[in-house]
What we know:
- Residues 1-36, 61-131, 679-723 are annotated as: Disordered.
- Residues 302-364, 390-459, 763-790 form a coiled coil.
- Keywords: Coiled coil.
- With 873 residues, the chain is an all-alpha fold.
- The protein has a domain at 1-197.
- It contains 8 helices and no strands.
- It has helices at 37-48, 53-64, 66-79, 128-139, 199-367, 372-493, 498-687, 690-851.
- Helix 5 (199-367) packs across helix 6 (372-493), helix 6 packs across helix 7 (498-687) and helix 7 packs antiparallel against helix 8.
- The longest helix has 190 residues, at 498-687.
- The relative contact order is 0.07.
Amino acid sequence: MDLDALGLNSTFESTELEGSYEPPADRIDTSDIEGPEDFTMNMTYWMTADLPLAQIKSRKEANARKLEARTQHRQDQNETQDNTAEGDQVIVEDSASNPKDYTASPTVRANGTTADREYSTPASDRSMENDEKVRSFLSALPDTDMEGALTGTPLLVHKQSFLQVPRSSPPKTRSLQATVEDYDTPRKPTQETVIHHNTSAVIDTIEQDALSTQVAEMQSRLEQQEITATTRITQLETILSYTRTELEGARTDNYRHQDSVTRLEKSMNQQRVDYEAARSSMEAQLKTQEDALGAKMREFGEEMSLQNLAKLQSQKEDFEQQLRLQAESKQLVDAELEARGQTLEKVQADLAQLRESHERGVQEKGVDHLEPSQHEESVSKEQIELTKQLSLVQARADSLNAQLEKTTTEAKAARENVQKNLAMHTVVEAKSLNQAVRISDLEGQLQAARFELECAQADVAAKQQLFQSNLALNSRIRLLQTELDTARISLNSKDQKSHQSADLEVHLKPLQAQLESARTNLEAKDQDLLRHIESQEQLEHRLHTSQGRIDGLEATIQSLRKQLAEAHRDSARLRADVERLERDLEESYDRLQGSHAEANQRVADIEKKVSKLKESKLESEKKVKELQAQREDLTEGHEAMMEDVRDKAEDAVRKAGALLEQERREKKRVLRDLKNIKEEVEKLRTESTQKVVEDDTSDEDDSTSVSTAEPNAKDTEISNLRDIVRKQVAEMKTLRSGTTALGKENKKLKATSDSHSDFKDTVTALESQLSVLRDENSTLQSRLEAQQSDFEAVNKAMDEKLASMLSKLMKERAKTVVGKRDGQWVETVGKVQTEKELLGKVLLRQWGREEVGVAEEKLGERQQYAYQYVKRS
């Protein structure tokens, strides 16, 4: 309610004197106040209020302007509609911008204002205390009869719109606006007035206003229902659009899934065909490689067996030939022994016969002893002949024994030669090593001898230089002596010249000192020269001895070189044999390596192919798993999507049913209300003026057209919803057919997994074949390693022998070098020591001569020594 319209102050509330903290309550509508007391209270005041004639005329003019205001309001309402949530309602009023609509009422009232009333607050924020105070104030108002009292003005009907259009309420003083029921309530003055009632006019206006208010309410309700219907229709259309988009997305996904499944089936078939082709080609290649490997292995085994048989045959033939030769030599020796035994037996038989004949002769001679002289002569001749024969027989027997011994020794030598020939290699190697060691020793001795010779030559050159220096000193000493002699002669000839003698003596003393020093130097040089001559002689002697040794060493070196050449020849032969054996070994090793490389390459090729097969198998398994996962995801997504579609369809059907029921109820209620209104309008049509009747009839025509148009739109919406539900059922059927197709695809994938199990069996067979090939390769590798180990063992033995030889050579050479250095060092130290002793003796002797005097050593005297100490002053 508007307190200004009642003649009250808008600031009547005590709650808004100071407190701006409370929410403002600018307007109270009768729709927000429960109970019939408000309407009856306002109606009683309105019926008891005395209205002037000007106000009655203004009401007629206001009724004429209703149609224009309604059309303008509908245009403004179409511009300000907005879809909001269901249940909340905010009142939107048309701002009274046209001052012509308010001709009967002032714009500014006493004790209050009507400006800035377009802002409103929700009903939940309004104060109920204001309502109670207004009710108590209206019930306690007295009747007044004030002339010119301002009564209610026929203002423009405030049309309510229940769209949610939120507006902020500006900070202003709280005031109450007029509602639908009391917008025409006159202002109640604050002072006591006497109101005069004109019953006939009041009743007419009351009835007309009641009818107009009811028509306005019905129109507002119809508009509200239209708005809610349009909002519901838009919501349902949005839901249907969402469901359509989702169904279209599901269809596209299903089509995509079907395309992907067909592509995967094609790829699986292609992979299966490729796999079968690769498997067949791989099996053919493996068979060919196995046949080739088997053929090569057989050829290699046959070659190795033939080579071994040839080697064994050759060795056997050599051995049999040696046995044959030894048997033949044995047979010859046995034959010779038998022949010699027969000859010995013959000789023994001859000797026995000779003895018997000799005994017979002796017996016959004993009988014929009568003729002694003749008989003795014949006996002596016979004895001589017998002795000759015996000597011949013994000589022949000795020769036969010697021949027998020779043959036995030759047989033994022949037997031993074989062993010696076998041991020759080691002996020759040992000799070559010893000779190399000896050659190195001789080379070291030769170098030492050359070094000693160079030292001796240097000493000889130094001694020659000393000898030349001694000769120069002797010549200088002779010159000094000649000068001294001339000086003495001059002194003897010039005795009279005493002053000159003193000068000569002065000159003579340094000359004598120089002469003595020259003599001492000459003696020392003589001694050095003697020593150098002795050492030169020693060196020459050593040089001659070393030259002799060098000649002997050169002779030994030549002999050793000959032996070394022979050893080199033998070693060359052995090296040739060794090289031949090494070549044979290398050839066999190369063959084995070639076969091993071929086997490794074949095994690597087989492993690569097997790995490729495994990779293809893994890829196919991955693809099968991915397909299964995609199928499961698609089935799950399809089921979820179907559930969502079902839920959404059920929700849409449920909402559509609820909306239909609600609309039907509202329609029935609206029809009942319309019937009642029509009856009331028909009753009042006769009583009201023609203008009002025309306005009312035009309003009824509009309402009926709206009411008839509304069910037609709702029927079309229901038919659309039924079509949507039918479409969703058809889509459900198509999705079910898609699920059956997916089940068939799953069966196909299971069949492909079974084919993969067959592929696994083939792979295991190939792996078993590969293991067999690996075993054969390992056997070949073991043979190759055995041969390589033998070869390495031979090389290692040769390296060890060479290392031992070199170490022995180096040790012996180091010993010789160190020994030579030690001997040279001892010799040089001994020389230095002897030279020091000799120098000490010479120094003491010369010192004794200078201090004591020269002793006559020819007479057996020894040189005396004297020591002179420095005297301190």
